[in-house]
Amino acid sequence: MKTSIFLLAAGLIITSCSGGKKTQTENPETTTPAAKMIALLDSTTASGKFFFGHADDPAYGHEWKYEAGRSDVKDVTGEYPGLMNWDLGMLELDSTKNLDGVPFHFIANEIIAQNARGGINAISWHLRNPLNGGDAWDVSVSPLKELQENQALADTLDLWIGKVADFIGSLQDTDGNRVPVIFRPWHENTGTWFWWGAGNSTPEQYKDLWKRTRRIFDEKGIDNVVWAYSPDRVPTPEQYFVTYPGDEYVDILGSDIYHFGGADNVEQYRQSVSGLLPYVAEEAAKRGKLAAFTETGLESVVMDNWFTEVLLPLVSDIPVAYVCVWRNANKDEKPEHFYVPYPGHPAEADFKKFHDNPKTIFVK
Fold first, then answer.
1. Residue 283 domain boundaries
2. Could you give the C-alpha distances from 60 to 64, 68, 332, 338, in angstroms and in order?
């Protein structure tokens, strides 16, 4: 592991890296699991490094499923990604598996394992539409526009949020301590594709949804969540905060910006990232928050040098705590849907080079 980062059960946070050692002594007000995670991410950002993230990493890869110890990232680089993203879609319906078929008991175990190896975890939630039972992308009806007047709908949504809170609160290490996670609810809300997104709710309705979510988590005493706000790209930086619920509800300012169109659209992707992410990082610093590149990627990694020549230069000078790409679906289900190279892929050497860069954090 190029950079070793550990959460110590004694309540200390020690980060050792090439620049030396930084130690934060125990403070009763800053020793919740969430506070420890925030301090860890803050020290990571200060060091000029970032965690590299990948969704569903140890669950399946381009050519395998549920093989113990496997990971496309690990198969190529020798290490796991520093961050793993997991999705809780379908938990609200008491399903045993999420919307991509990953068992929730597997997710819980892998979150604990990733934490034990010194990595971190993030959680997204593509929940069903509580008004008609459709999926997260069903925008034929708009629940948030009816939430104030429809008590049954409000009760359902509160119940669903409570189930997610209970799941996250149940995550414990072998010593019985809650495992901290980054929770990124209601993401990409500046896009129109989710039922909580633009056009399907007003800014105030969206803000109220965030406050409702925080209220339920807080009432349950969930203290292991670091809250991430992650809109999709916006036409102007100022629009980023139109739906912002407020500093008291958010710990991380992030953004989801994907690279579409391969080599033909490199400049467009660069402009989208450089036009927003530095602003987000600057605002995060002003507000005492963290910044992150919460979702990105180039599907099928159709450029052999994308990681070192496109992604890395864009984020090298921006103080982000982590950068996360999406999942590697199995080739039998979605053969083109993968975001890191697997062994034998033309971009394998470039990804190894990206891994070896001193700014990136992976874990053993």
1. 32-363
2. 6, 10, 11, 11
For residue 65, tell me if it sits in a domain. yes
pTM (2 d.p.):
0.92
CATH of the domain at 160: 3.20.20.80
Provide the number of structural domains found in the chain: 1
Convert the pLDDT of each residue in 118-165 to its tens digit.
Answer: 999 999 999 999 999 999 999 999 999 999 999 999 999 999 999 999
Q: Is residue 284 part of a domain?
A: yes
Of residues 226, 184, 166, the one with CA closest to residue 87: 184
Nearest in space to 91 (alpha carbons), one of 198, 4, 166 = 166
Q: Which two tokens stand for residue 205?
A: 């309705």
49 neighbors 361 (Cβ within 8 angstroms): yes
What tens digit of pLDDT does each residue of 208-248 get?
Answer: 999 999 999 999 999 999 999 999 999 889 899 999 999 99
Task: Give the tens place of pLDDT for each residue, 294-339.
Answer: 999 999 999 999 999 999 999 999 999 999 999 999 999 999 999 9
